[in-house]
Design goal:
The chain has a single domain, classed as Rossmann fold, CATH 3.40.50.1820. About 35% of the residues lie in helices and about 20% in strands. By secondary structure, the chain is an alpha/beta fold. This is Alpha/beta hydrolase. It comes from Actinomadura darangshiensis. Keywords: Hydrolase. One of its GO terms (molecular function) is hydrolase activity.
């Protein structure tokens, strides 16, 4: 692809337009605030002493619950846990807890450091989850856009052992509109912030990394997603060879993940089924 074609394929914010994008961001915040109002949980827990980054736990109660760890998007340089808990009430009603971590945004943090932090969040859930009402043996990870990439980096192998975790610590995954071979990002505007070269991009691409254990996964994209994101899911799905590919009709890059607030939606039902199967 030419640089201009890559920008069209991956610049979903420009595709949406500023007015629609701003409305989506307002929906993220409003839906997240409504979802957690009055919900049992624990806010602002430091999960990584090195960075000081924090996470929220929502929807606990009674016996330790299976947990959905949601990694927010924003091209690694925007958004936060405060606008990313819109699925918490729906999952709570289904007996599932939600964990939403922050991570240091680019360019303050390198992408390698962001990946390290996300893996540290998974490690925290495994080591300390039980004392916060979470079942460390039933961790499902998901995320949207850049969070889909970070989900992929939690799915692959090689990082669990050094952290003292079992290779199958992530029991299932649901990346939305993920980026799995991020080498094209070196040629689009986002690279002004993440500052990757091809060698580092390859080393941070889930589709190019080994995984002896392949957890079940549902790869979700939107019918009206950016062409690059649709292509990425269609690339990684057969490579992973342990999951389903779901293209949600009448949705785009930004609203498809909001369907997780609805247990009857295609993604909502798939997530519930995925968690209950682990």
């Amino acid at each position: 692809m030419s640089d201009e074609e890559l920008d069209v394929a991956y610049n979903v914010r420009r595709k949406a337009g500023r007015e629609l994008f701003d409305r989506y961001m307002e929906r993220y915040r409003a839906m997240s605030e409504a979802a957690v109002e009055g919900l049992p949980g624990h806010e602002g827990i430091v999960y990584d002493e090195v960075s000081g980054e924090r996470l929220d736990v929502w929807g606990t109660g009674g016996e330790p619950r299976p947990v959905f760890v949601f990694l927010h998007g924003g091209y690694w340089m925007a958004l936060s846990r405060d606008v990313s808990s819109f699925m918490a009430r729906m999952l709570h009603e289904q007996g599932i807890a939600t964990v939403v971590p922050d991570y240091t945004l680019a360019p303050e943090a390198s992408l390698e450091e962001i990946v390290r932090q996300v893996r540290a969040a998974v490690a925290w859930v495994y080591r300390h989850g039980r004392e916060h009402g979470l079942d460390p043996e039933r961790i499902v990870v998901g995320g949207s856009s850049a969070g889909g990439h970070l989900t992929g980096m939690a799915m692959v192998g090689g990082w669990q052992g050094p952290l003292g975790l079992p290779e199958n610590v992530v029991k299932a995954a649901m990346p939305f509109s993920g980026l799995f071979d991020i080498r094209p990002i070196t040629r689009v505007y986002v690279n002004e912030y993440v500052r990757l070269d091809l060698e580092r991009a390859a080393a941070l691409s889930p589709a190019l990394l080994p995984a002896r254990y392949r957890c079940p996964a549902v790869f979700v994209s939107a019918e009206n997603d950016g062409d690059g994101f649709l292509a990425q899911s269609r690339l990684f799905h057969p490579v992973w060879d342990a999951g389903d590919l779901m293209v949600v009709p009448d949705r785009d890059h930004f609203d498809v993940v909001l369907d997780l607030a609805d247990a009857g939606s295609m993604p909502g039902k798939a997530l519930i089924d995925l968690v209950r199967a682990v």
